[in-house]
Each structure stands twice: as structure tokens, then as C-alpha cells.
């Protein structure tokens, strides 16, 4: 009876608070107990229908310390790998958060899905397109929920971009410029997992580039990418002066700190993209979406993390007069990570589609993969996403 009611549950009460049915608790595990796992843990702790039952990390003792520091007791952590944890049937896991570095996204995701466990996978989807395809195959075979960790999607201002495009006010969209970056912001606060090839695989391109791509591709309905000309560089990452106190990081740097691309999308849209962890300018430009009836400008942020940097503007000519409309910043409150975790849990509980589905993010990944391939070959490449 409770299950039946759940399926029709309206999540918001009259005060617009999220109503959570606690009749059924979801048993959650965390794979990879580093920096971002802390945000997952904090959100799971706020959910009254969650029991955090297990966690693991490749580094011995790290998972146990992570849960102790996080104030959660009774979590099983004596696993040497994600496989050992997922093989432990006594856990009866409903879902896992995969918070491992990029090169360890595909393996744990595939294994979890094969074990019939729902997956919240951190962004970027994977490192290569081939890996993402394998994850999607496992998802399809399992029938489980796989959601990719793009929490900026849940920001009301980001959602406004899609509403503006969907309203038709811009007319036919034909050109998009997107990207962003930091003047100096190579992420090494907790070591080198973001900058070593063996752990990260891709640098700024995937780390923050995936957000820029999601911002605009989601708005225009995730058209299929067709071709890409890409460029990557590592001038700052390879410079010991970039790391005061840790000049040795320069030798370990094996990814990109800047990337740019020209992408053709199905439907005749051109996508002009650039992204930087470090550069000698404040911003490589705002995001702009040009349509036949109007244009939209989305201000960039100093510390690019996939958000809207200020009030957006719509440019339109009416009766021969050039007009500008400001789209005010929407302050809807609420923590984006909480929303990300809640929407994933609801998808698991009520058999709803993944909040950020692989069927969209595969195109995001295909572009990242295309940029990396094109940069290596020094010429334009075709993007082919196999049918899954
Ligand atoms: N959504 C966001 O806002 C956001 C923010 C930061 C990072 N991230 C993403 O989260 C991922 C992790 O980033 P981080 O900053 O937490 O990195 P991190 O290096 O701090 O933590 C990763 C942890 O995963 C562990 N690990 C790796 N492979 C494992 C495996 N197979 N089994 C168990 N443990 C394993 C590592 O030992 C490490 O402790 C990255 O892919 C990153 O892009 C997302």
C-alpha cells in the first residue's frame, strides 16, 4: 500500500516544502571518500529516508576516517576496493554515489549497475566516449537509475536559460559561444588527482568544460554533435611557478589547463567553446546564444563552476528599435547538492527517469572526447555515438 501511494506522491506540501516518505529507507554506499564525497555525505545525512551503510576508498583507512569525521556511525568500510563492497550482499545496497577521480568513473559504475545497484555518478561522465558507452550498456541491461552529477542544472537561473530557449523568443538558435574559466585555478587543494593523467585523464576540458557544455546543450535540447575541431594546452600546469610550495606538481601535470573547440551540432547549430583552469585574462567571454529573433547573454563567473554570473540579458529588435531586457537573478534558496541527491533518490524510489540522464550526457562526453582526439590529431574529427 505504501509503495502504491509513493508512486503518486506529490513531493511538495502547501508550504512548498519537500515531503519525504520515510516508510522505505534507501541503503546507500559511497565509493571514493575524497573531497566531493563530503558534499554527498552532507546531503545524504539530511535525507530522512536514507541509511548510509557502506563506503570504500582505495587508500586504506581513508573511508573509515571519512565517516568518523563526518559524524556517521556504523558504516562498513573494511573493503579494499569498490568490487569488494559491491560484492557484499549483506549490505543490500539500493544505490551508490561514485565520487572517484575521473579515470575510476566507468569501472565502478559498470560494476555497480551489473550488481543491480542504482548509481549517482559524479561528473564528468567518464574520460572517453568508449567508456561512457560501456556504462550506458550496463545501465540498459540493469534497468537501474544512472544519474550524472550536474547539480548546476537544478539552479533556477540555469533552468531559466532553457525556459527562454523553449519559449521560442530567441527564434531559431544557430550559434552558441560558451565556456569560461579562472585566471589561476588549477585544482590541487587535496593533492594531484585532478592533474595527473593516470587519475584525471582530462583537465579543465572535462572538469569545468562539461558544465559549460551542459548549460547550453541542455537549453537547446542536447542536439547530436557531428564534428569537432579541438585544441588543448598545458602552459600553466607545466610551470612550477603555478604551484607555490609544490613545484614538483609541474612534473606530474599530465592533462590540459586550457581547451577550445569549434563544434557542429545537428540542426545547424555552431558551438564555439573555450575553457581554462588558468589564463592571462579575467574571462574568455560570456556565454551567448544567438537566435534569429533574439540573442541571450549569460554572464560568466570569475571562478567558473557552471553557474550564471549575473543577470542575463535578452537582445531583441522591435519595430526597428534595439531593445535589451534584463532577466533578474532568481533566488530560490536551497542547496544544489541537496537537490541533486534528493532528485536521484526520488528517481530510485519512485521509478522515475534519472534527473540527469546518460542519454543526454553521452553527447557532452562525445564532445569532450572529440576535442581530445582532434587536439591530438591536429585536425577536425567526426563524432560518432553508437546506438546503445
Ligand atoms: N559535482 C561537483 O561539484 C564536483 C566537485 C568536485 C569534484 N567533482 C568530481 O568528483 C570526482 C572526485 O573528485 P574529488 O575532488 O573528490 O577527488 P579526490 O581525489 O579528493 O577523491 C577521490 C577519491 O576516490 C578514491 N578512489 C579512486 N578510485 C577508487 C575506487 N575504484 N574505489 C574506491 N575509491 C576510489 C581515491 O582514493 C580518492 O580518495 C571527480 O571526478 C570530480 O570531477 C564534482
Question: Key terms for this structure?
Answer:
388 residues, 12 helices, 31% helix, five-stranded parallel beta sheet, 22% strand, binds nicotinamide-adenine-dinucleotide, disordered N terminus, Dihydrodipicolinate Reductase, domain 2
Can you characterise this structure?
The protein is an alpha/beta fold and 388 residues long. The protein folds into two domains: 2-151 and 336-356, NAD(P)-binding Rossmann-like Domain (Rossmann fold); 153-332 and 365-382, Dihydrodipicolinate Reductase, domain 2, CATH 3.30.360.10. It has helices at residues 2-7, 35-46, 62-69, 82-87, 106-114, 129-142, 156-167, 204-207, 209-219, 249-252, 336-349, 358-377; strands at residues 26-31, 50-56, 95-98, 118-122, 146-149, 173-181, 225-233, 258-265, 269-276, 287-291, 294-298, 312-318, 321-327, 381-382. It is globular. The model is unreliable at 1-11 (pLDDT under 50). The structure holds nicotinamide-adenine-dinucleotide (NAD).
Amino acid at each position: 500500500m505504501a509503495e502504491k501511494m509513493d508512486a503518486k506522491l506529490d513531493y511538495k506540501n502547501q508550504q512548498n516544502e519537500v515531503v519525504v516518505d520515510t516508510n522505505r529507507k534507501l541503503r546507500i554506499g559511497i565509493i571514493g571518500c575524497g573531497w566531493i564525497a563530503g558534499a554527498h555525505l552532507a546531503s545524504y545525512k539530511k535525507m530522512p529516508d536514507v541509511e548510509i551503510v557502506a563506503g570504500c576508498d582505495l587508500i586504506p583507512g581513508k573511508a573509515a576516517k571519512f565517516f568518523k569525521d563526518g559524524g556517521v556511525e556504523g558504516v562498513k568500510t573494511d573493503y579494499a576496493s569498490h568490487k569488494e563492497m559491491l560484492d557484499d550482499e549483506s549490505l543490500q545496497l539500493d544505490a551508490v554515489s561514485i565520487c572517484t577521480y575521473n579515470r575510476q568513473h566507468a569501472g565502478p559504475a559498470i560494476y555497480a549497475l551489473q550488481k543491480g545497484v542504482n548509481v549517482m555518478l559524479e561528473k564528468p561522465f567518464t574520460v572517453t566516449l568508449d567508456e561512457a558507452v560501456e556504462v550506458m550498456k550496463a545501465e540498459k541491461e540493469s534497468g537501474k537509475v544512472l544519474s550524472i552529477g550536474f547539480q548546476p542544472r537544478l539552479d533556477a537561473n540555469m533552468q531559466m536559460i532553457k525556459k527562454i530557449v523553449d519559449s521560442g523568443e530567441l527564434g531559431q538558435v544557430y550559434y552558441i559561444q560558451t565556456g569560461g574559466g579562472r585566471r589561476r585555478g588549477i585544482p590541487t587543494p587535496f593533492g594531484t588527482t585532478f592533474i595527473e593523467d593516470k587519475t584525471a585523464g582530462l583537465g579543465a576540458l572535462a572538469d569545468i568544460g562539461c558544465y559549460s557544455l551542459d548549460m547550453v546543450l541542455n537549453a537547446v535540447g542536447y542536439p547530436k554533435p557531428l564534428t569537432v575541431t579541438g585544441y588543448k594546452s598545458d602552459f600553466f600546469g607545466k610551470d612550477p611557478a603555478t604551484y607555490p610550495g609544490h613545484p614538483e606538481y609541474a612534473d606530474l601535470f599530465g592533462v590540459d589547463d586550457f581547451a577550445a573547440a569549434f563544434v557542429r551540432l545537428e540542426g545547424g547549430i555552431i558551438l564555439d567553446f573555450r575553457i581554462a583552469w588558468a589564463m592571462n585574462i579575467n574571462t574568455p567571454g560570456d556565454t551567448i546564444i544567438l537566435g534569429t529573433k533574439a540573442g541571450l547573454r549569460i554572464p560568466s563567473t570569475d571562478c567558473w563552476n557552471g553557474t550564471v554570473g549575473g543577470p542575463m540579458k535578452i537582445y531583441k529588435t522591435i519595430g526597428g528599435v534595439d531593445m535589451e531586457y534584463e532577466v533578474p537573478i532568481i533566488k530560490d534558496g536551497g542547496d544544489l547538492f541537496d537537490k541533486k541527491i534528493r532528485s536521484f533518490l526520488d528517481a530510485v524510489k519512485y521509478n522515475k527517469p534519472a534527473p540527469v540522464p546518460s542519454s543526454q550526457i553521452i553527447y557532452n562526453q562525445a564532445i569532450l572526447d572529440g576535442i581530445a582526439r582532434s587536439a591530438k590529431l591536429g585536425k577536425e574529427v567526426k563524432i560518432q555515438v553508437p546506438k546503445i
